Amino acid sequence: MIKHFTSSVFVFGLVGGVWSLGLIEHPRLRRWMIAGGHVEPGESQVDAALREVEEETGRRVRLVRPPGPAVPPAFPRTVLTMPWWITEQPVPPDAHCPERHVHVDHQYVALVTEPDEVIGEPEHPFRWVGQGELDGLAMFADTRLLAAGLFAVVPMLGASDVDAVSVLTSLAGDGQR
After folding, report:
1. What DSSP string describes the chain?
2. In this model, does residue 39 exceed pLDDT 70?
3. Phi, psi of 55 (to 5 degrees)
4. Strand 3-15 relative to strand 101-111: parallel, antiparallel, unpaired?
5. Each residue of 56-83: pLDDT tens digit?
6. Rounded distance, CA 122 to CA 81, Å?
């Protein structure tokens, strides 16, 4: 099976004092989705994540490193932000491949400082949604599931003293510890 690398981003912002998730309306799939797309030649998955958010939403974001050990300050190489998850998704033919294939999706979490600040014309309709709105939206079940888990931890992500154990425990939920 052909595999293509993709990147997608759960973009969160404080909208009216409430944490909200930014979603785009995908024109072909007719669903509300997180921004994302194929990694282009010469790009890293991080580059693609940031580019796709800017193209699809018109916004710049700051990727949030998932909980885990930090690289020592003297490490001599460029360190890229790790994705929160890497998942494989079978997909039908699309503009990048004329046959069924698999997207190896690097899923990131990001924050915006100013949710209403738009730096360019978004490619897709965009909206902010609260946690209570997720169930009423036409969206993929896996995205809804991950978004619901992230809503539980996003207030911690903006803090400078993130407790990795608390974040991971919140994401795991009951019975999965």
Report:
1. --EEEEEEEEEEEEETTEEEEEEEEETTTTEEE-EEEEPPTT--HHHHHHHHHHHHHS---EEEPPSSPPPPTT--S--PPPPSEEEEEEE--BTTBSS-EEEEEEEEEEE-S-TT---S--SS-EEEE-GGGGGGS---HHHHHHHHHHHHHHHHHTSSS--HHHHHHHHH-TT--
2. yes
3. -65, -45
4. parallel
5. 999 999 999 888 888 898 999 999 999 9
6. 24
Is residue 172 scored above 70 in pLDDT? no
- pLDDT tens column, 90-140: 999 988 899 999 999 999 999 998 999 999 999 999 999 999 999 999 999
Q: Band the pLDDT of 177: cuts 50, 70, 90.
A: very low
Distance set, CA 96 to CA 8, 57, 64, 124 (Å): 16, 21, 28, 19
